[in-house]
Amino acid sequence: MPNDDEVFAVVTQHLGGNHVRVRCADGETRLGRIPGRMKYRNWINEDDVVLVEPWSWQDEKANIEWRYSSEDAEQLRAEGHIQ
Fold this sequence. Notes:
Elements: E1 7-16, E2 19-24, E3 29-33, H1 36-39, E4 49-54, E5 61-67, H2 70-78
InterPro entries: NA-bd_OB-fold (IPR012340), RNA-binding_domain_S1_IF1 (IPR006196), TIF_eIF-1A (IPR001253), TIF_eIF-1A_CS (IPR018104)
Family: Belongs to the eIF-1A family.
Function: Seems to be required for maximal rate of protein biosynthesis. Enhances ribosome dissociation into subunits and stabilizes the binding of the initiator Met-tRNA(I) to 40 S ribosomal subunits.
């Protein structure tokens, strides 16, 4: 579950390299950055549910903190956390 400064998001577009476009649960569309610790271990594709932490100095960008499996994403949708 997200902390106070984190939000759920759905990946809408893979921009190449370590950047993706995400649609956040708070209604914003942000540029997400995949950190190096996740880059080659967790493949992030379109329509994946992720947990992001928006940057405090640039709200239109965010770091991806976690990628949820498809089973976890379905459970989050069933509980009403994401759409």
